[in-house]
């Protein structure tokens, strides 16, 4: 098994230059505490109950030590430490600054041993579109015209693939296109099938309005 990723444009890139990209991982599910307990049990002499009890105690100790402002180190895993944030804008002259501080989050810095275990990982680019291309409404109209020149019906997934859009963005555009009277859903509400409305995407204005 390998890590699955896709390429995303870096933010704040200059419009005069070709945008640079960065790889972003798609998480391959989640391992919960129960599963970890069973895995530890399989590799040790501890029962599942013993492991759960130890982890519960560890979580309590973490909270106690972090509340005291201590960094907690788990050998082979990494360092955990608390961070703070100001609850409002604070300057040198702000009175009662101590009252304007709150807990923010717990940060993590991995051990070199943990990072070493990840060296040489395999990474494959996702075969599916999980984020949207930068595409204008005019370009969408052009792609739809080309699509309907060879097809009679379009599903939401077809629309995603043709326009290079993620599911949520595709649904937003489909709602817009229906409101603008360009597409008509001739399928079911939960299983829509789209066709061009008369006057759009190569369909004559004199064509019969498709039934909804």
Task: Describe the fold and architecture.
With 212 residues, the protein is α+β, with helices and mostly antiparallel strands. The chain has a domain at 137-196: Winged helix-like DNA-binding domain superfamily/Winged helix DNA-binding domain (Arc Repressor Mutant, subunit A, Orthogonal Bundle). 33% of the residues lie in helices and 21% in strands. It has helices spanning 33-42, 48-67, 112-117, 137-148, 156-163, 167-179; strands at 3-9, 21-26, 72-74, 78-86, 101-110, 123-125, 183-185, 194-196. It has a three-stranded mixed β-sheet, with no helix packed on it. The chain has a three-stranded antiparallel β-sheet with strand order 3-4-5. α5 (156-163) packs across α6. It is elongated and about 75 Å long.
How are the elements arranged and paired?
Layout: E1 3-9, E2 21-26, H1 33-42, H2 48-67, E3 72-74, E4 78-86, E5 101-110, H3 112-117, E6 123-125, H4 137-148, H5 156-163, H6 167-179, E7 183-185, E8 194-196
Parallel strand pairs: 1-6
Antiparallel strand pairs: 1-2, 3-4, 4-5, 7-8
Helix pairs in contact: 1-2, 5-6
């Amino acid at each position: 098994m390998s890590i699955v990723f896709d390429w995303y444009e870096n933010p704040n890139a200059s419009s005069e230059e070709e945008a640079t990209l960065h790889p972003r991982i798609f998480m391959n599910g989640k391992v919960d505490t129960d599963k970890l307990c069973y895995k530890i049990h399989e590799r040790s002499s501890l029962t599942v109950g013993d492991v759960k009890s130890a982890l519960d105690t560890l979580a309590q100790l973490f909270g106690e030590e972090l509340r005291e402002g201590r960094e907690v180190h788990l050998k082979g895993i990494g360092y955990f430490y608390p961070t703070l944030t100001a609850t409002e804008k604070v300057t040198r002259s702000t009175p009662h600054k101590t009252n304007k501080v709150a807990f923010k989050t717990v940060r993590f810095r991995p051990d070199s041993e943990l990072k070493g275990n990840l060296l040489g990982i395999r990474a494959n680019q996702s075969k599916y579109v999980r984020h949207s291309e930068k595409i204008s409404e005019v370009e969408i109209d052009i792609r739809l015209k080309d699509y309907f020149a060879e097809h009679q019906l379009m599903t939401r997934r077809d629309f995603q693939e043709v326009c290079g859009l993620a599911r949520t963005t595709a649904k937003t555009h489909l709602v817009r296109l229906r409101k603008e009277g360009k597409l008509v859903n001739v399928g079911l509400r939960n299983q829509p099938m789209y066709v061009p409305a008369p006057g759009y995407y190569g369909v004559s204005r004199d064509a019969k309005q498709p039934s909804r």
